Fold this protein.
Amino acid sequence: MEGFEEILADAAATGRRLNRDEIESRRALGARAAEAGQGWRALVRAHLAAGRRSRPAGSDPDSVLTVIEQAVDAFADGYERAQRLVVRKEEAARREFVDDLLHGRGDPGRLASRCERFGLRLSRAHAVAVAEGPEKYDEADSVPRQVSGELFARFENRRILFTTKDGRMVCIAPSDQDEVLTHFAKLVYAATGDSQVAVGRPREGVVGIGHSYEEALNALDVAQRMGLDDPVLRAADLLVFPVLARDRQALVDLVRYTLGPLEQARGGAQPLLDTLTAYFDAGCVAAAAARELSLSVRALTYRLERIHTLTGCDPADPAHRYALQTAVLGARLLAWPGRPL
């Protein structure tokens, strides 16, 4: 309010408008008030109270109101400009924090000190859920805002973090609060109608959050490669796939040696590979696999015999089944036979 009463007394007495210096002084004070975190309602009330208290005796009420209007308008302009700058800086700091946290960059001690500011308490283990929808989302988009609003309305007192990253929605919650991540998945599915949510394993500390995030991303990648359409994926349930993919050359050799002969079949390897997939998914029950493929049991049995003839491995023989099933999983991970080995 510095200088306001003097400006009011001088301008209202003569009925003049505020000059450029007076308007700039109000803008500067508005910016200072925003940077200091002053509430807007209290500031407007202070201007009105000062106007009532300091108006010159006998002055025209319209002149007094005009001065107050000009002063408050200039003050609001400076306040809003500074507030937008503060918001942009805060958002930039939050985005930098999220990037460092999810990718494990920066000093762990500094990251830990910033976690409390953004709602996380690192004395607990955390798990990360990543949602991939039909579109890429930014935090300002309507879908993330809806999910975030409903999530925090339900769990307003929980130490959780919601953000977007690379077009996906991300939720971080303490590992003993799995209901938060489950509800997050439900909200995402309800808001998008078509999405998958992957949940990484619980991990300790700042670095652990980054690891959990990477596991969730890997689970989404595996789901895409393997054609898994479950709405919620748990990284802990898919650990076999990273193990298989860890030694790519060994996996290529397994697929080439075990399943390569299927390419000699009429129609190529894909129909027989689909047969093996359905057979193993059905628990090696021929009737169930035949229904899945819209085949007769006799036709399915013929295909299995053909696979045995070409590969030397009998899908019905437990001694051969493990190698065949592992090779089938490997083929899906490698996108074979559509992509050359």
Q: What stands out?
A: The first strand starts at residue 126 and ends at 132. The two ends are 75 Å apart (CA to CA).
